[in-house]
Every structure is written in C-alpha cells, then in structure tokens.
Amino acid sequence: METFPVLRLAAPLAFLALAPLPAQALSLDRQYILDWNIYCKDDRYCIAATNGTSANGDKMRFKLERSDRPGGIIFVTTAPDGNPLAVGMKVRIAVDGQERAFSGEIKRVYENNEMAFREQTDSGLLGILKNGTNGTVSVSYGGATGTIDYKVSLRGVASVLTLMDIVQGRLEREDAAIVKGGESQDSASSFDFSEARAPEGGGKDE
Predict the structure, then answer these.
(1) What is the distance, to the nearest Å, from the Cα of residue 2 to the centroid of all Cα atoms in its chain?
(2) pLDDT reading at 206 higher than 90
(3) CA 49, CA 47: separation in Å to the nearest integer?
C-alpha cells in the first residue's frame, strides 16, 4: 500500500476551500486546480483534464477518468487534435525526464480521437503521474507525421485525484487514488464530508 508523508498529503487537501460538498455528493461542477480541471457527472463519473502542446503547436487533451464503482480502474486518456489515432500506433508517457517510461499499443480508438490506458490505483504509471511535475506523451503516428511529443503539466494531478476520491466516497478506503486507508473498497467512507469543501472555480478551459 502506497503511503504519503504528512506534508504531501496536506498539499492536495489544502485546495478544498469554498462551497461545502454534501454528504453524498453526486456531481461536481468544473473546478480548476493549478494546471488541471475536474468535473463529475450526476452518476459520480469523474473526469480530470489538462491540455498538452507539442513544439509545433499541436494540441492534445490529457485526462484521468474514473467511475464510482468500488475498485474501479482509472483511465489515462490521450486525445490529440488534428492528428488521427489508429489501432497499432505506439504511445509513450514519460515524467520529469526519468528513464523509466510507460508505453503501449493502441488497441481501440474511441470517440473524439481518444485512446486510454487502464490503470489500477497502485500502478507504476499513476505513481509517477501524481508525483511528477512535467510529462511528455509521445505518439508514433508513422509516415510523414512521424512521432509527436506533447508536453503536459502534472501540477495539480494529486489534488484533482484527491477531490475525485472525495466525490466518489473513497477517502481512507483501500481503493482511493490518493488518501488510502484500511477501509474495504465497498464500505462507506469514514471521511467527514461536512468539513469538505470544493476548490475555487476559475480559469479557462481551452
């Protein structure tokens, strides 16, 4: 089980300031935390996202998505603008210039030109994303396009995942993304939601 020092744990929680969340929050309007934004639908399906850019100005949407299902996986999703993805292409994710990187082959292209890695909360990929500062998503398109490297900011990942845990009732449960505890993944969170506050909205979703 992954643990976090007190100061690191306090940092994401420090963003929870303003409108109180209900004891059983079912949705969340879009909120902005550092370089990321997050919103949750009525069924507590949450999407956190940021924008990536290549040296040539190519854009990419980089997202973390999760349903409220106990033990549910987290989808790490990439969605480039303008350059169509195709089954068989290679995608590589590296963080802060580390030699260790995560790569895979696109098995399926979803609506809006999206592909996704399916990750458990204790996966190596999520570990480096929530502890990193800057990431590079490299897509090997092949042909004349070649490989495009998209730079994405990871400032705010730990905070949006903490808020996702709160809305989905996972705090202090074993299936939490950030604030893990010993509670069963199908138990009600023991976190006091009356003291929880959503972050201040602001910024612009480009």
Answers:
(1) 17
(2) no
(3) 7
- Model confidence pLDDT, tens digit, residues 124-166: 888 889 889 999 999 999 999 999 999 999 999 999 999 999 9
Cα(161)–Cα(158) distance, integer angstroms: 5
For residue 63, give every residue at least 6 positions away whose Cβ sits within 8 Å of its Cβ, in sequence order, or none: 47, 48, 49, 75, 76, 77, 78, 79
Segment holding 97, helix H or strand E: none
Query: To the nearest 10°, the Cα dihedral for 123, 27, 132, 138?
Result: 80
Task: Report d(CA 86, CA 131) in Å as an integer.
Answer: 30
Burial of 156-181, coded b for 16+ CB within 10 Å and e otherwise, reads bbbbbbbbbbbbbbbbebbbbbbbbb
Which amino acid would we find at residue 95?
V
Residue 57's identity, in one-letter code, is: G
Amino acid at 122: D
Structure tokens at 167: 């809305």
In the numeric block, which tokens belong to residue 123?
A: 């996966």
Q: What is the pTM of this model?
A: 0.77
What the block records as the tokens of 120 is 């458990």
Cα dihedral 66, 162, 69, 43 sign: negative
Q: What is the pLDDT of residues 72-121, one digit of tens each?
A: 899 999 999 989 999 999 999 999 877 778 889 999 999 999 999 998 88
